[in-house]
């Protein structure tokens, strides 16, 4: 069962470090010790989620910036991915299941889907200091003289 999207989504601004790397936006969650890589379309949605724009306003803005009429499906999918990564305020990750990738692709025309990048949020858990100090090393490469 799909949960309703927040009417005026807001990107999390506390406890995160943000760095632009090429077309991607890297976000480090200092509370959860997770790093997230947002592609251009996901980053556009995240940056414009300021709590004052409705879903329809976001869809129009993102659609214009990406040159697609499929802004609503794109924004909905991106918000689902951002909420799952704990990058939205007031949306517990367990309440996310707004739209599946399959639903989003069904809503978009093939031409639109091919022309723009599907919003992607890649997440990894950063190693703790205990892991870093564990002393585990890779075995020597047998092909390299030491």
What is the topological layout?
Layout: E1 16-21, E2 24-29, E3 34-38, H1 40-48, H2 55-66, H3 71-84, H4 101-107, H5 110-115, E4 121-125, H6 129-132
Antiparallel strand pairs: 1-2, 2-3, 3-4
Describe this structure in words.
With 146 residues, the chain is of the alpha+beta class. It has one domain. The chain has six helices and four strands; from the N terminus they run E-E-E-H-H-H-H-H-E-H. The chain has helices at residues 40-48, 55-66, 71-84, 101-107, 110-115, 129-132, and strands spanning 16-21, 24-29, 34-38, 121-125. A four-stranded antiparallel β-sheet has the order 1-2-3-4. A hairpin with a 4-residue loop joins strand 2 and strand 3. Helix 3 packs antiparallel against helix 4 (101-107). The termini are far apart. Mean pLDDT is 76; it is low at 110-115.
Main sheet characteristics: 4 strands, antiparallel
Shape by Cα distribution: globular
- Radius of gyration over C-alpha positions, nearest whole angstrom: 18 Å
Strand order of the largest sheet: 1-2-3-4
* Classification by helices and strands: alpha+beta
How much of the sequence lies in strands comes to 15-25%
Question: What are the salient characteristics of this protein?
Answer:
single chain, alpha+beta, 36% helix
What is this entry, summarized?
This protein is α+β, with helices and mostly antiparallel strands.
């Amino acid at each position: 069962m799909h949960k309703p999207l927040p009417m005026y989504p807001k990107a999390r601004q506390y406890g995160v470090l943000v760095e632009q790397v090429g077309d991607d936006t890297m976000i480090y969650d200092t509370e959860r010790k997770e790093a997230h890589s947002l592609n251009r379309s996901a980053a556009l949605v995240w940056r414009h989620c300021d709590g004052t724009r409705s879903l329809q306003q976001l869809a129009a803005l993102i659609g214009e910036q990406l040159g697609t009429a499929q802004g609503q499906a794109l924004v909905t999918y991106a918000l689902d991915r951002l909420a799952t990564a704990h990058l939205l305020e007031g949306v517990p990750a367990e309440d996310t299941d707004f739209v599946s990738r399959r639903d989003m692709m069904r809503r978009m025309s093939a031409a639109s889907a091919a022309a723009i990048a599907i919003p992607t949020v890649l997440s990894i858990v950063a190693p703790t200091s205990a892991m870093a100090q564990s002393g585990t090393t890779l075995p020597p490469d047998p092909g390299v003289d030491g």
